[in-house]
Amino acid sequence: MRYRLGIRGWGISLFIALFIMGALFLNHFFINQSTKINQSLHNMKIDESLHNLNFQHKSDEEAARKLMEDYRKTIAYINIIQRENKIYSVVFIFILFIISIVIFWVIFTIITKPLEELHFATIKIAEGDFSIKLSENGIMEIKELKMSFNKMSNELDQAQQKLIVAEKELIWKDMARILAHEIKNPLTPIQLSFQRMEEIYYDDPTKLEKIFPEVSTIINQEISNLGNLAKSFSEFAKMATPNFEIFDPAEEVEKIISSYKEIANIEVQIENNLKISFDKQHFYHIVTNIVKNAVEVSNFEKLVKIKLYFSNHFVVLSVKDEGPGISSGDMKKIFEPYFTKKKSGTGLGLAIVKRLVDNNHAMIRVKSRVNEGSEFILLIEEYHENSYNG
Predict the structure, then answer these.
(1) Which of 116-149 are b and which e, b meaning 16 or more Cβ less than 10 Å from the residue's Cβ?
(2) Of 126, 142, 158, which residue is a domain's last?
(3) pLDDT per position as a tens digit, 201-234
(4) For residue 182, what are the domain limits?
(5) pLDDT in tens, 182-196
(6) Of 97, 126, 155, the domain-final residue
(7) Assigned domain for 390 exists
């Protein structure tokens, strides 16, 4: 993988390059200074001056002594200058280093801090929070970038609000369409039954007594279907917040299946002394829906196996039927609202089950094979006093 330098990498590289160039420049400058000093010493021609003295007079000796003294002073002065140059060189390089750090720190602060703010803001946008706004300050380019980001964020926020409104309208239209269709189904036989009663009443009122039980049964059945339909829609729309209670699920499961034992072929294996933290009403509704579906697809004749047991920190409820099974294509849709294969179903039963399971922090799994049956598995974390479920 090819490595790319970021803005910090390029800044550090530039800093090192400038520092090295400054050091080389100083080194070259002081070398030139040293060369000039050495050249000045050479130009003094002390050897020639001493050669011109014949030392025959005392004045020549004094002149030679003075010449050597001046030479030593010059050498000492040059040494002092060279030491000072070295000190100045170190001080200058140190100052250059400090100034460079300050300059680059300021540059990094001006550039990288806004970029970090922008990076954080883009993460929030990706998470769906379009309300985030950046302070529109900084250098001109950064300020323009922040203004553009805020404009984009505002436009996305407005688009999201419009989308939410459109989705709500679509959901209500879809629910109204489905509800109208579902209401129409029971109303048709009710209307036909009343028309039949009306015709017989006007043609031969004596025959009304014969058909009344049949017609009243049909009407009562369809009115019951309407009530169940209204109840399903109400439960799906409401979905109250769970009221967690600690209880033994075995007791509740036994209560639920007791009403099915006489009309269906049910085999039960229940393990007692288990504890869960769950909403009791939600638990009743979940188990009732699963058991009812299993009994219905088994035509009240084929075996339905119900097991309640503990496994790997979970309380497991398994409801297995020998019905027609679920195809792989339908398996993805069974928990979707309004999806049903039943002629009289609303398609809300399993959707409500899934919503209640999620609200109670549990899990539900489905195993199925066509023509072999299905198994619904409810997984609830076992309650412990040192744990909290919900």
Answers:
(1) ebeeebeeebeeeebebebeeebeeebeebbeeb
(2) 126
(3) 888 888 778 888 887 887 887 787 677 667 766 6
(4) 174-238
(5) 566 567 677 777 888
(6) 126
(7) no
pTM above 0.85, yes or no: no
301/373 same-domain check: yes
CA distance 93 to 104: 16
For residue 139, the 8-state DSSP code is S
Give yes or no: residues 93 and 33 share one domain: yes
Tokens of 302: 């084929």
Q: Do the domain assignments include residue 169? A: no
Q: Tell me, what amino acid is at 261?
A: K
* Tens digits of residue pLDDT in 1-43: 455 555 556 666 766 777 777 767 767 766 776 676 666 656 5
**Is residue 189 domain-shared with residue 110, that is, in the same domain?**
no
> Count of residues for the chain?
390
Position 336, amino acid: E
What ranges in 127-139 are assigned the alpha helix state H? none
- What torsion do the CA atoms of 76, 77, 80, 86 make, to the nearest 10 degrees? -120
Query: How many domains does the chain contain in total?
Result: 3
**Which whole-number Å values give the CA distances from 196 to 45, 186, 208, 212, 267, in the listed order?**
144, 16, 9, 10, 45
274 shares its domain with 226 = no
The edge-to-edge listing of strands for the beta sheet with 304-311 is 266-270, 304-311, 314-320, 373-381, 363-369
**Lowest mean pLDDT: which of 11-20, 155-164, 247-256?**
11-20
